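Hi C.,

You asked whether I'd gotten around to modeling the 405-residue construct. I have! Everything is below, sequence then structure, no commentary in between.
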Amino acid sequence: MKLREWNAHLHGLVVFRALLNDPVVARLLDLTDRMEAGCSSYGPVCDAVAAFEAALFEYTTNWGSYLSNAVLEAETICVRQAAAGQLDALLQSALDSELQFLQQLCGLTLDELFQTAYSEQAQRPELAFLPRWQTCELDLAAAYAQRMSEVGKKGYGMFAKHHVFTVENGQLVPVKYPDPQRLSELPGYEKEREKVIANTKALLAGMPANNVLLYGDAGTGKSSAVKAIANEFAPEGLRLVEVKKNQLYQIPDLMDKLAANPLKFILFIDDLSFTANDDNFAALKAILEGSVGGRAQNIAVYATSNRRHLIKETLSDRTGDDIHEADTRQELMSLSARFGLTVTFQRPEKARFETILEELAKQHNIQMPTEQLLLKAEAFALRAGGRSPRVAKQFIEQCEAGVQK
């Protein structure tokens, strides 16, 4: 393939047009543009080669490996249609053609690129000092077909690179460094978490799954359980979207977009509570099966709260001038009733607290006699306001840091 063809095929990408925004591919396109322009001096070409290699070497020295990964993770109209089971024949043809070109591009070397540009002299001694990137041979079409068959687990675009997201201005934003919490690091509430895990497995299997309310005392590991479940099942196609209470009105539009995605999503609302006249109250009711559109089968809402009915109530609410007080109370309680599964995390009794402590001590390799460990931890819990998994972890971390001896 001649330089002009490399350049034209890059500019003519349709299915994989988004690749041109990739920081490395964009540098290669600029390089072929400069070479195609026939610069009389080597400066602009050397500049473009150096810029491309500097961008590539930030990730890897193998161009073929980088490009193939970018292709496999790209979000395209073809992967979206294939995930929905309806890939247009014309798009399939365009996909096959571009994959063939991109496979050739994976094997493109700097010397070959120079040869296509300077056919009268394959080796240019003036350019010999430039580093040579590596390439690799692969069947990109077969790899892409395999990836499309696994799109329900591996995802595409940013969903292939990240598994935890937040919401900003109605758009999903990846969390680059999510909390690495694992289920194995959370001793003491296995029975409570098992209910949530079973519901999550149903969601992943495409079976009916409930919205989940994790209710209970502070510090009992409700939020940690949700994060750990998201980490545990990310390879199975689970993604976590953390939503703040004041963003609830943005969620219906977001859910419409996620409904067509082959992955499964947990919308996570942490530390949820409302006042009786909170505008967000109605927004969440609509999300929890209250709208005419219904709820997408690949989305479930998981919320944590210290309040069983989610509403902050006062004595004046019960002795107010509402004529139909019973109806009002039913309205306030209807929100928590829309969670099909409610799991209670109670403050641990002494035996459970000690079990948590002993397990955490093993995980952190704390060398302290058990009797002494439990005695010091009990005193620490009294000062901290009571027993909880959070208090146990704080005590163990202090032991690890040498504060507790």
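If it helps when you're writing up: Residues 89-106 form the longest helix (18 residues).

Thanks,
B.
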